[in-house]
Amino acid sequence: MFISLCLLIQYQHVCDTGATFQPNSLSDVNPDHLSYFKFAGRLMGLAIQHQQLLNVYFTRSFYKHILGETCAL
Question: By the 8 A CB rule, do 12 and 21 touch?
């Protein structure tokens, strides 16, 4: 799913954990980018609701944003 969203998701390789993903700051190039993010979020929510493993790792700042916490630099 995340490979096909090339402009929406930014891939970051981290040696010890493999790969992490975060929203791409240039995603607004695509006029429908918010619809795609909404779809991806609903798909992940559905997987979690059905207790399916998501083998995807996001950046710490993205997790904090999802949880509504502030990001300190």
Answer: yes
